[in-house]
Amino acid sequence: MQNGAGTRVRVLVVLLAGLTALTALVAAPNGDATAKAKAKAKAAAVPVTVMTRNIFLGADLTPGVEAKNAKEFVDANGAILREVDQTNFPLRARALGKEIRNNDPDLVGLQEVALWRDAPPDFNTATNNAPTATNVRYDFLKLLLAQINKGQGERKDRYKVAVVQEEFDFEAPANEDGNDDTGPLGGEINGRLTMRDVILARKGAGVKISNAQGGNFENKLVVKVSGVEIPVDRGWTRVDARIRGSEKLRFVNSHLEAFDDETQRPSIRALQAGELVEPGGPATGKKRLVLLGDFNSDVPGVQPGDEQAFQVLLDAGFAERGVKGPVTCCVSSLFTSPPSEFDHQVDHILSDSGNKVKQVDSSVVGREKKRGLYPSDHAGIVSELKIR
Questions:
Q1: In this structure, is residue 34 part of a structural domain?
Q2: What sign has the CA pseudo-torsion 81, 87, 88, 89?
Q3: Given strand 249-255, what is the order of strands in its sheet?
Q4: For residue 356, what are the contacts with CB-CB under 8 A and spacing of at least 6?
C-alpha cells in the first residue's frame, strides 16, 4: 500500500510539472507578443513640435473703433498708420523668424498676419465696406517668411505656407501727416488692413500636408463707427498632416474675437468657440487633433466671463497641451512695457485625443525685447507632443 501510494504521488508530481511546463510554453509566445506589441506602440509614438504665435498687427485699433465722429475717425486712422510704422514689423520679423528657426516646429499657427495697403483718399470705401487699395506697405507674411527661410544650405527654404485665411478687411481715409488741410477732414491717404490667419509647415522634415481649409465664423462682432456698421470677421485654418509616418493629425489654428463684451453670456468669442467644436466643425473628427491659437480667453477662475470660450473647449473634451500659467498676454507697449505685463494667458495649445496626443514638453518664447522692442505684444508657445 505504501509503495503504491508513493508511486501515485510521484506520477502526480510529474504530471503537474509537465502541465506547468506546457502552460509556460503556451503562455510565453502570447506574453512575448503582448510585450512586443506594447514596445512597438511605444516606439511608434512620433515626436511632433507645434507652435502658436500671434505676431501683432502693429497698432491698437481701439481709437478708430471708439471714434465719435468722422473727423475723430480720420485722425485715429492716421495715428494707427503711424503706429504701424513705429512698431517696425520688418525689425520684429527678424526676432520672430529666429524663434521659429531655433525651435523647428513642424507646424506653426500664426494669428494677426497683417497685410497693410494704401491708396488715394476715398470715403466711399469705408461707407460701402468695399476695400480697393492695392499698394502694399507691409506684407507681414512675406516679411516673416523671408526671415524664417533666410540663409544657405540646410537653413534655407525651411517653411512653406500650408493655408491662409483672410479675416477682417477694412479700408478708410486717414490723416497720416497730421495736417488738416491736405484732404477731406485731413485725410490725405486711404489705409487698408487685411487680417489673416496662417498655418506654416516645415519642409524637409517628413511633414506631409493635405485637406488644407479655412473659414470665417458666422457669429461675429459688428462695430458702428460714425454711423457705419462694420462686421469684424474672425475665423480658422486647418490642415491634416502625417509627420514622419505618424497617424494623420488634424491641426487647427484659430483667433477668436477680442473686442466683444466678455461678460455677455454667451459672449461672441464663446459662440465662435462653439462653432469650432460643433458637429462637423473644423475642430472635430476621428483623427488625432490639436487645436491652438489666440482664443482671447483665460482659464476658469481668473476673471469672470473671460473663461467662457475656453470653458466651451474644455466641455468639448479638450485639455491643455501647452504651458499652464499667466504667461502669454499682453504688453501694452513694445518699447517700454516690463515683462510683468505678460500677466494672463489667452494663447493655448489643446488636444482632445486623450493619450493619443501626449505632451512631452512646452516652453514660452518672446518675453524679452530684441533690439529694443518685443517681437509681439503676445508671447508664443512651443509644445513637443507625441502622436501615438
A1: no
A2: negative
A3: 207-216, 235-243, 249-255, 288-294, 347-351, 319-320
A4: 247, 288, 387, 388
Q: What CATH code is carried by the domain that includes residue 92? A: 3.60.10.10
Q: Give residue 96's domain range.
A: 46-387
User: How far is 71 from 251, CA to CA, in rounded Å?
Assistant: 44
Q: Does residue 290 contact residue 246 with C-beta atoms inside 8 Å?
A: no
Task: With respect to residue 156, please indicate whether it lies within any of the assigned structural domains.
Answer: yes
- Cα separation of 41 and 45, whole Å? 7
Number of neighbouring beta carbons within 10 Å of residue 233: 16
Position 244 in a domain = yes
Beta strands in 24-182 (DSSP E): 46-54, 107-111, 115-119, 135-139, 159-174
In this predicted model, what pLDDT tens digit does every residue of 49-94 receive, in sequence order? 999 999 999 999 999 989 989 999 999 999 999 999 999 999 999 9
Cell 470665417 belongs to residue: 216
What contacts 339, CB < 8 A, 6 or more positions away? Answer: 331, 367, 368
- CA-based torsion, 261, 195, 338, 333: positive or negative: negative
Number of domains in the chain: 1
DSSP code string of 147-163: HHT-SSGGGSS-EEEEE
pLDDT in tens, 333-359: 999 999 999 999 999 999 987 778 999
- Span between the terminal Cα atoms of the chain, in Å: 65
Give residues with Cβ within 8 angstroms of 162, minimum separation 6. 107, 199, 200, 201, 209, 212, 237, 239
From CA 88, how far away is CA 138, in angstroms rounded?
10
Q: How many helices (H) and strands (E) does the chain have?
A: 8, 16
Please name the residue that has the C-alpha cell 492695392. Answer: 134
Who contacts 197 (Cβ-Cβ below 8 Å, separation ≥6)? 109, 110, 111, 113, 164, 165, 167, 214, 235, 236, 237, 253, 254, 255, 293
Cβ neighbours of residue 259 closer than 8 Å, sequence gap 6 or more: 62, 65, 221, 223, 232
* In a domain? residue 29: no
Closest CA to 294 of 60, 73, 54: 54
Distance of CA 117 to the CA centre of its chain: 25
